[in-house]
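DATA SHEET
Item: assembly model
Revision: 1
Owner: S.N.
Input lines:
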Amino acid sequence: MKTLLLFAVLSFTVAHHAADTVYICKGSKGKKYHLRSDCRGLSHCSHKVVKMKLADAQKEGRTLCGFEK
Ligand SMILES: [Zn+2]
């Protein structure tokens, strides 16, 4: 049962990324977005980490975080 649950979680994660959801550190001066919520760049975020659509992040002039290129 545990294996099944893990598979379900992984499937959800993959589907989630396909939806172009990115993570940003709201309130920071950084103009970056992150593909992973556990990215090294976000671990330094002292503000709130929020999810948003990739297109919206790019509209704000954000670029992909250097750790994820
Ligand atoms: Zn990042």
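QC remark: Residues 21-68 form one domain.
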